[in-house]
Design a protein that fits this description.
Catalyzes the insertion of molybdate into adenylated molybdopterin with the concomitant release of AMP. InterPro entries: MoaB/Mog-like_dom_sf, MoaB/Mog_dom, MoeA-like, MoeA_C_domain_IV, MoeA_C_domain_IV_sf, MoeA_linker/N, MoeA_linker/N_sf. Keywords: Magnesium, Metal-binding, Molybdenum, Molybdenum cofactor biosynthesis, Transferase. The chain has 9 helices and 26 strands. It is an alpha/beta fold and 437 residues long. The protein folds into 4 domains: 174 residues, 3-Layer(aba) Sandwich (Molybdenum Cofactor Biosythetic Enzyme, Chain A); 57 residues, Alpha-Beta Complex (Molybdopterin biosynthesis moea protein, domain 2), CATH 3.90.105; 89 residues, Beta Complex (Molybdopterin biosynthesis moeA protein, domain 3); 73 residues, MoeA, C-terminal, domain IV (Beta-clip), CATH 2.40.340.10. Strands 1, 14, 17, 18, 19, 20, 21, 22, 23, 24, 25 and 26 form a 12-stranded mixed β-sheet that branches. It has a 6-stranded mixed β-sheet with strand order 8-5-7-6-10-9, with no helix packed on it. A hairpin with a 3-residue loop joins strand 19 and strand 20. The longest helix has 19 residues. The structure holds adenosine monophosphate and magnesium ion. Adenosine monophosphate binds next to helix 4.
């Protein structure tokens, strides 16, 4: 028999499914709070090269040991002067020295100017810089010392970058819990830091469940057996995990069998902080994840008031060769459900594991350029795209299996349960770019 076509529904199972009482759906915020209540930050701190710290979470406050800039320096190519010497336009000064970036000058005497370049230290005695566009070099007089005429009056402090105006010694420049990005790495480097203390990377074991799944490359599209589909979740989940700074062990596809699922979980628990699966967490009799996790630990199956998404499994698996537990999250199999649930639930979990202080993404209030006449009884996350008019267009097919909607969209509208939307209504937009950064 083809392994993708299994006729397993027994009348008893159907009866059970129909008669099972429906538990009320759990609000998404409650589910997230419950999930996060289980997540303690990973212990330990790593020191990584500042070059390699992009995307990592800072484990300790960074307090500056120095002023940035460390010395008063010129913001322009021009002339360093004593402002008292240039109270009126047309003042003429003797140019007694030349200071390039990386070099220092001598104390400036009354009536003198120093030729100076951007970033060079302002010499003692000087308190202002005149940009070269406002200076006219005069023919050298008999003593050979060049002179310069300055076309405008000078204000003390002009074009001088003050020591400490960027960072003052002793201040906390980067706070523990901050997720580092390119600007933060540059700032850390400006303080002289070649290494940074960061939280360990979460170690995540990833596997997909489903007998229908085949891997791209294993079977060409024209030879795809009836009932088979390509495994798409594995690809985006792996990429999403990498973006969240995780070390990923890809355990592949686990067949819809309890023994195989138990074996995969056992392997996964030992060296990982989180086991992440997709599929097999609905309440069908082909959904083996729940009993398998329960055999090795504990699991709750939540029905969350969200669309796409709804079923989500959270639990833990005991380690067999080491002390401790691995967290377990079972995402729904439908690709859009899996994707959105990852962003809304797994992303904050991974950030909390790393001790990040900001778990949520900022939203924008934007006008809907579409109608949504029938609000669902679950909170919806509608795939939309920003348009040139400053509004949001809706992807026409909002089904949870249509991955095109996520690739096309650049975010979702977070639409409260039961809410209809009329063209022009201002809605809450969550951009994918924020989630993926
Ligand atoms: P399940 O949650 O296992 O009942 O799966 C729900 C739907 O998602 C089914 O149509 C599956 O074929 C599909 N599905 C499950 N896992 C994947 C996957 N890794 N890639 C693409 N589709 C999947
Ligand atoms: Mg399945």
């Amino acid at each position: 028999m083809c392994r993708w076509l299994r006729l397993t529904s027994s009348p008893t199972a159907i009866e059970v499914a129909v008669n099972a009482p429906r538990a009320p759906l759990m609000p998404l915020d409650d589910a997230l709070a419950r999930l996060l209540a289980h997540i303690n930050p990973l212990t330990g701190t790593e020191s990584v090269a500042t070059f390699d710290a992009d995307g990592r979470v800072l484990a300790r406050d960074i307090v500056s040991d120095l002023q940035v800039p460390a010395f008063d320096n010129s913001a322009m190519d021009g002339y360093a002067v004593r402002s008292a010497d240039v109270a009126a336009p047309g003042s003429v000064l003797r140019v007694t020295q030349r200071i390039a970036a990386g070099h220092t000058g001598q104390a400036l005497q009354a009536g003198e100017a120093a030729r100076i370049f951007t970033g060079a230290p302002v010499p003692p005695g000087a308190d202002a810089v005149v940009m070269q566009e406002e200076a006219e070099v005069l023919a050298a007089p008999a003593d050979g010392v060049p002179q310069v005429r300055l076309s405008s009056a000078v204000r003390a402090g002009q074009w001088v970058r003050r020591s400490g105006e960027d960072v003052t010694r002793g201040t906390t420049v980067l706070a523990a819990g901050l997720r580092l990005g390119p600007a933060e790495l540059g700032l850390a480097a400006s303080l002289g830091l070649s290494h940074l203390p960061v939280a360990p990377r979460p170690r995540v074991a990833l596997f997909s469940t489903g007998d229908e799944l085949v891997m791209p490359g294993d079977v060409p599209p024209e030879a795809l057996p009836p009932g088979a589909i390509y495994n798409s979740n594995r690809f985006f989940l792996k990429a999403l995990l990498h973006r969240m700074g995780c070390e990923v062990s890809d355990l592949g596809i686990v067949p819809d069998q309890r023994d195989a699922t138990v074996a995969a979980l056992k392997t996964a628990a030992d060296h990982h902080d989180l086991i992440l699966t997709s599929g097999g967490v609905s309440v069908g009799e082909e959904d083996h994840v729940k009993p398998a996790v329960q055999a090795l630990g504990q699991l709750d199956l939540w029905q969350i008031s969200m669309k796409p998404g709804k079923p989500l499994a959270y639990g833990h698996v005991r380690r067999s060769t080491q002390p401790g537990l691995a967290h377990f999250v079972g995402l729904p199999g439908n690709p859009v459900s899996s994707y959105i649930t990852f962003l809304l639930m797994v992303r904050p979990l991974l950030l909390q594991l790393q001790g990040a202080s900001r778990l949520m993404v900022p939203s924008l209030q934007l006008p809907a350029h579409f109608d949504w006449p029938k609000g669902d009884k679950r909170r919806e996350f509608l795939r939309v795209r920003r348009n040139d008019q400053g509004g949001l267009d809706l992807f026409p097919n909002q089904s949870s299996g249509v991955l095109t909607s996520v690739a096309w969209g650049d975010g979702v509208v977070d639409n409260p349960a039961g809410q209809t939307i009329a063209h022009g209504d201002v809605v809450r937009f969550l951009p994918f770019a924020e989630w993926l950064s």
